[in-house]
Amino acid sequence: MIYLDHLLKATQGSLHQQSKHTHFQAFNHDTRQLTPDELFVAVRGERGNGHDYLLDAVRKGAAGLLIEGLVFQQLSEQTRSTLAQEDIEIILVEDTRLALQHYASAILKIWHPTVIAVTGSVGKTSTKEAIASVLAHQFNTFRSWQNYNDMLGIPLSLGRLEARHEYAVLELGCDHPGEIAALCRMLQPTIGVLTNISPAHLQYFSSLEHLAFELSTLLTSLPAGGHFFYNQDDPTIRALLTQYTRDTIPAVTCHPFLPTIPKGLTSRKMVTAVNWQGIQGSIALEDTHEQHADAKATDKREHDFVKLSSQLLGEHHFDTMLAAYQIGLNRGIYPAHVEQALTELKPLAGRLNPLPGVRQSMLLDDSHNATPASMSAGLQTLNSLAATDSQRIAILGDMLHLGEYEEEAHRSIGRQVVEQVDYLITRGEWAALIAEEAQLAGMPLERIIMTSTHEDAAQAARRLLDALPATNASTTTDKSTSTAVILIKGSEETRMERVTELLMARPWEASELLVRQTPGWKKTFFMHAERPTWVEIDLNAIGSNTRHIASLVGPQTRVLVALKADAYGHGALKVARTVLQNGASMLGVATVSEALPLRDAHINAPILVFGYVPRWQMREALRLGVSVTIYSKEEAQALSRTALALNKLVKVHVKVDTGMGRLGIRYEERAKILELVREAGQLPGLELEGIYTHFAQADAEDQTHVHMQLARFNEILQVLEAEGLRPPIVHAANSAATLMLPEARFDMVRPGIAIYGLEPSPNVPLPEGFRPALSFKTQVSQVKWIPAGEGISYGSTYITEKPTCIAVLPVGYADGFRRGPQNWRSVLIHGQEAPILGRVCMDQCMVDVTHIPQTRMGDEVVLIGRQGELILSAETVAERLGSFNYEVVSGILARVPRVD
User: Fold this and answer.
1) What share of the chain in percent tops pLDDT 90?
2) Which residues contact 89 (CB under 8 A, 6 or more apart)?
3) Which parts of the sequence belong to the Alanine racemase C-terminal domain (predicted)?
4) What contacts 784, CB < 8 A, 6 or more positions away?
5) 296, pLDDT greater than 50
6) CATH, domain range 353-468+480-522
7) For residues 761 and 701, what is the distance between their CA atoms, to the nearest angstrom?
8) Which residues pair with 628 in a beta bridge?
9) Tell me, which fold does domain 2-96 have in CATH?
């Protein structure tokens, strides 16, 4: 509950507009999840500005608005007039983030609950919830909402604090140096809890030592007489405490998670049971007094000291329970009451939460986040919970924010997987290292599947489940008889809860049981672009388009997907993994060098090199195990000699030129074709795999030429068949022919442009259901007014005729954003076209936004794709450039990062 007078006094804000509201239910900074009677806080973020959504907040029922005064003065007259007519409070402050922090600090002093701060690398939220649940049995206890744990999240959460609360249990996160100290200054905790220290957010801390120093700030920030609870099994924490007691006179009482024990005894933790009902453990005491020489071994005294149980899953949660137990006792709660409170603890959403899965499987949804420590704990839990006759399947996504430790972290998990998993499915490029290391450690390749999309990961799991024998269980709620136990885990940005939803037996329950299910999260997409100009690739569209092609040609016809030019600018590696999971069985590249990164990434599917392979590169072709295109006897003989030298076999495809005028034996030279096919089938080290041709005008309105080429190719095939020389794979159809010429599909089709959701030509539209996979975007880097009569860009080729508001964009011809002879003409900003002014520079360009007054720094700009109701397609751009869509998407240079 937020009282207006408290807010005004704490923030030194001014009441610009007053209404009947004297209090608000809570703070909210996201209109997508705002509920009536809340106070909307307009926060400026890295990718958005809450001040853009003031009217939306009012429409959603906000009782008040907390706005930055300077921004309010810059609002349009129409917006300010609309707000003036609403029955809402408008509070103006200098900085809304600082205002929230001042309010948080003030309200804690006004209502003075005992503040308990929980931090650590992992386990913060579960520990915070356990402590709050124990205290709530005897005290009015507030807990920070979900994992709101930073300088913005905690103040937002404290909007729900009330005068009745005696304790406030708050989670403290940190992803940069100095954050814990700043949080402690704001919250003034008197009790601190440190769960553990392990690699997390190392991209900003550079080392585990620096992270440890940051987390230890909680201890040094506690006041004299405070209490600090810590995990005594963590060696890094023990070293910190040793240094703390050596360098200072301790003014804070430090408590290990293990209970205080009588003198002369030692204790050890024992987890006595880990099963689907939860975890049980005890603290055992052992007498360490010296025994008399004649004493029997049975005289050694050992007994249970404390027994605890909860419904949490995983042995690592025993530390969670111990922390809550110790604090409960410290706060004067009777031990039996603490133990009872712990038995009621249940897994939180996304944190090893068991859910019924498809085909009698059981899902371990651990999709909230991932670090090496939590990933390891998840795998251990998977291993311990799977019955002897159940398959252990791990679906693992990337672990992010680990800095230089990122590669080794994934590889270490790969080594662990071998002992604890029967089948491994990875989703993402970092996670692929887990698969690579698991294979190196001895996991059979047929038990490893690498994917790039949530849908493909889920489909891979479904295929595994379909191959497993059914159990006698009549319901998926019987965890002990599940056909498989599936762990699903990855960092927050990987959104692995989407995989969980696709595998749930009751997916309609996702909104209640999974993390990140609010409207705001549903519309949030993380990107890891290295610069503010990027290409977004919808891999799901590529997967869907591939399935459409496979369905169109039928199961008897193979699908080879062309990955030339880095998959037409879409990213060959991710596209390769996606199409292979969705119906393609072969890949095509232009050069041997294009095959190299695919093989290095363990793409083992057949690859055909369409282009010229010089003799000096034949060894590399054989090493990579690719199929080679041949069109001369000399080439075939050279390949044979190379194969013999390396003791390898190389598959070849004979290329016939039926009217393209490019690589291949001319169709008129039938004798040479026949001789080459015969020799390719007989030369040692060669295996004749296929024969093909390529159409020059399959996408033309006049189909005369393509039918001529097809007739010529059929003549060659008839000659080969008569001689018994027809190769196993005959192929001719590119995207246009695949769509428009069924008789050209033969044994295999070679779609390229259609896979990426782009039309082969205006004469060959894509069937319904295909969709583009690529969007090209940038951000506004500056907005400013240029007086009349001023030149814009190099050469001053454009002179302003009137005062003009321009937006500078960080994209130029070095990105593939064409300068001449024609340019893009316009881009999309706020769903409107913004014309390009003057010449496009190497790295920047300028556009006219005079008619789009809401434009500001950081706004998204669409160069190819949809924004609002407008679409700027690759085809439209191609028409403006006097080019075609192939060149447009393939011409986006490699320095533009691809994200999905």
Assistant:
1) 85
2) 4, 15, 17, 18, 19, 21, 39, 63, 64, 65
3) 773-900
4) 805, 806, 808
5) no
6) 3.90.190.20
7) 9
8) 609, 652
9) 3.40.1390
C-beta separation of 886 from 753 below 8 A: yes
Q: Note whether 265 and 287 are within 8 A (CB).
A: yes
* Sign of the CA dihedral with 236 first, then 238, 239, and 245 last: positive
CA–CA distance, 205 with 404 (Å, rounded to integer): 10
Using alpha carbons, select from 528, 527, 530, 533 the residue that is nearest to residue 843.
533
Rounded Cα gap, residues 514 and 875, in angstroms: 40
Annotated binding site for substrate: 662, 842
Q: Helices 406-420 and 431-440 sit at what angle, rounded to 10 degrees?
A: 50
User: Cis peptide leading into 235, omega within 30 of 0?
Assistant: no
The arithmetic mean of pLDDT across residues 451-460, rounded, is 96
Mean pLDDT of the chain: 93
Residue 899 burial by Cβ neighbours in a 10 Å radius (0-12, 13-18, 19+): middle
Count of Cβ atoms closer than 10 Å to residue 428 Cβ: 26
Q: Which of 70-79, 353-362, 513-522 has the highest mean pLDDT?
A: 353-362
At 891, is the secondary structure helix, strand, or coil? coil
Q: pLDDT (tens digit, 9 = 90+) per residue, 47-62?
A: 778 998 999 999 999 9
Which stretch of DSSP H or E encloses residue 598? Answer: helix 592-600
Position 192, amino acid: G
Phi, psi (rounded to 5 degrees) for 702: -85, 115
Q: How far is the C-alpha of 290 from the C-alpha of 721, rounded, in Å?
A: 93
Query: Distance (Å, rounded) from C-alpha 406 to C-alpha 762?
Result: 46
pLDDT tens sequence across 797-847: 999 999 999 999 999 999 999 999 999 999 999 999 999 999 999 999 999
The residue behind tokens 């003409």 is 825
Indicate the annotated binding residues: 120-126, 662, 842
Class of domain 774-872: mainly beta
Of 254-258, 268-272, 627-631, 715-719, the least confident: 268-272
Q: 108, 128, 126: which is closest to 118 by C-alpha?
A: 128
Query: To the nearest whole percent, how much of the chain has pLDDT over 70?
Result: 96
Radius of gyration of the chain (CA): 33
Q: Is the dihedral of CA 335, 340, 343, 345 positive or negative?
A: negative
pTM: 0.90
- Residue 647 in 3-state DSSP? coil
Q: How far apart are CA 263 and CA 319, in angstroms?
A: 23
Is 189 in contact with 30 (CB distance < 8 Å)?
Answer: no
Dihedral sign for Cα atoms in the order 465, 471, 476, 482: negative
User: Alpha carbon of 833 to those of 248, 826, 850, 866, 867: distances in Å?
Assistant: 64, 6, 11, 11, 10
User: Residue 607, SS3?
Assistant: strand
Identify the CA nearest to 579 among candidates 803, 756, 327, 712: 756
DSSP code of residue 766? P
**CATH architecture, domain defined by 112-256:** 3-Layer(aba) Sandwich (3.40)
* Integer CA distances (angstroms), 720 to 66, 717, 728, in order: 79, 5, 12
Nearest to 611 by CA among 587, 592, 638: 592
Confidence label for 247 from pLDDT (cuts 50, 70 and 90) = confident
799: amino acid identity, one letter: I
Q: What is the mean pLDDT of residues 602-628?
A: 97
Catalytic residues: 564, 794
Higher pLDDT: 265 or 878? It is 878
Identify the residue whose tokens are 């993390």: 515
Q: Are 862 and 871 in contact (CB under 8 A)?
A: no
Fold of 536-756: TIM Barrel (3.20.20)
Domain ranges of the chain: 2-96, 112-256, 353-468+480-522, 536-756, 774-872
Cα–Cα distance measured from residue 370 to residue 363, given in angstroms and rounded to the nearest whole number = 17
Residue 72 CA to residue 794 CA, distance in Å, equals 36
Identity of the residue numbered 300: K
